[in-house]
Amino acid sequence: MAMLELDGVSLYFSVKGEGTPIVFIHPPLLTNENFRYQRAVLSHAYKVITFDIRGHGRSQYSPRPITYHLITEDITRLLDHLGINKAFLCGYSTGSSLALEFLLNYPDRALGAILVSGMSESSDFYLRQRISLAVKLAMPTAFPILAKAITYGNADSNETFKTLYDAAVKGDIRNIKEYFQYSLNYNCTDQLKHINYPILLVYGKKDKSFYRYASLLKEKLPCSDLNFIDNEKHQIPTKASAELNRLIAHFVEGHNNNFF
User: Fold this and answer.
1) 92, 26 in Cβ contact below 8 A?
2) CB neighbour list of residue 63: distance below 8 Å, 6 or more residues apart
């Protein structure tokens, strides 16, 4: 089990494959296991890096509150540890906001990004209500219910559900709650014009509440490519893995010249 010590906190990470590096970033409560299909397939051609954010999965509790600045700082330190100068970032859901934050804070460490079911802000009533409910349920008595709801929603099979759930309940409720809370108030929309890197946007065609975020990112990002996957909702990494993996591979190959 690979662990990186960061200021007294052990951060779990996994590296599989060789080639252009891609760092995958998970949303609150979920863990690196949410990218199990990307790790299994894309690692045949690329260096796939997954990790558990502090207080999630096998990473230890962080006495420092979870903020996007802290998480992106951890990513740079992980890249330093692995001897990697630049990487693509792939964020899922609120993890995509972290990918954007990384591009804004550490542009010299990035090759570009893949934003899956992503957003630069949480500004619609439906999404804010969902995140606010998760914050309320992030307590010892209700946490198993929250974990089951989120992991079951992201599972494509009973095996995946068990894997996601078992990893999720290892996390620390305090850090998970902090991650949800920070995501609720994060907004980098006004800064998107400064991101001059290639961005792949991927959404499910049935994820209609996220159309507004897809349109916003497409409009504001200087260099983005918007793709919708037919017959899919929000949970693309697990439920539409084959098509997502194809899109990621095509995108990375098209921009691999940035790596050399």
Assistant:
1) yes
2) 9
Distances (CA, A) of 200 to 21, 99, 121, 197, 248: 16, 12, 17, 10, 8
**Predicted confidence band at 165 (pLDDT cuts at 50, 70, 90)?**
very high
Q: Residue 196: phi, psi to the nearest 5?
A: -105, 50
Task: Identify any residues that bridge with 115 across adjacent strands, giving them in sequence order.
Answer: 91, 201
DSSP 154: T
E strands present in the chain:
2-6, 9-16, 21-25, 47-51, 87-92, 110-116, 199-204, 224-229
Count of C-beta atoms within a 10 Å radius of residue 139? 12
Name the maximum alpha-carbon separation found in the chain: 51
Of the CATH numbers 3.90.226.10, 3.40.50.1820, 2.40.340.10, 3.30.1330.60, which one belongs to the domain with range 2-259? 3.40.50.1820
Can you tell me the mean pLDDT for 149-156? 97
Q: Helix, strand, or coil here: 231?
A: coil
Domain boundaries, the chain: 2-259
DSSP reduced 3-state for 243: helix
Closest C-alpha to 21, from 74, 99, 89:
89
Q: Are strands 21-25 and 199-204 parallel, antiparallel or unpaired?
A: unpaired
Rounded CA-CA distance 259/87 in Å is 8
Mean pLDDT of 137-147: 94
- Express each pLDDT in 70-93 by its tens digit: 999 999 999 999 999 999 999 999
pLDDT in tens, 186-231: 999 999 999 999 999 999 999 999 999 999 999 999 999 999 999 9
